[in-house]
């Protein structure tokens, strides 16, 4: 029963993440776009693995960032330089993961997309 409750709480966290965090919704929209492109382009199993890893990595980074922001606000409701640095570092982690995912997306999706565009014209 405890295992089932842990899934319930995890899904509540996901709901909160996408309900309250605009950047998480942006990352989710980009993930849906990448999946749609991947289907259209007919990615290989390895390419799908890379895309799925990147999507999971970015969304997990966004969830960690949100958790750090919530916890920081709880323990330091007033302005604190170190609290700001903690939030900035968490945001930087999301940025770095998103940049890595974007580069991977260009590497995986770019060549087949280019071929389809060139063949179209």
UniProtKB/TrEMBL annotation:
This protein's UniProt keywords: ATP-binding, Cell membrane, Kinase, Lipid biosynthesis, Lipid metabolism, Magnesium, Membrane, Metal-binding, Nucleotide-binding, Phospholipid biosynthesis, Phospholipid metabolism, Transferase, Transmembrane, Transmembrane helix
Cellular component per GO, a single term: plasma membrane
A Pfam family hit: DAGK_prokar
Cofactor(s) this protein requires: Mg(2+)
Ligand binding (ATP): 3, 9, 69, 87-88
Binding site for a divalent metal cation: 69
Residue ranges that the Swiss-Prot or TrEMBL entry lists as coiled coil: none
Membrane-spanning ranges: 24-42, 48-68, 89-109
Primary location: membrane
UniProt membrane topology term: Multi-pass membrane protein
Subcellular location: Cell membrane
Cofactor, how bound (note): Mn(2+), Zn(2+), Cd(2+) and Co(2+) support activity to lesser extents.
GO biological-process terms attached to the record: phospholipid biosynthetic process
InterPro entries linked to this entry: DAGK, DAGK_sf, UDPK
Highest taxon listed in the record's lineage: Bacteria
PANTHER family: DIACYLGLYCEROL KINASE (PTHR34299)
Protein family according to the UniProt entry: Belongs to the bacterial diacylglycerol kinase family.
Official protein name in the record: Diacylglycerol kinase
Organism name: Flavilitoribacter nigricans (strain ATCC 23147 / DSM 23189 / NBRC 102662 / NCIMB 1420 / SS-2) (Lewinella nigricans)
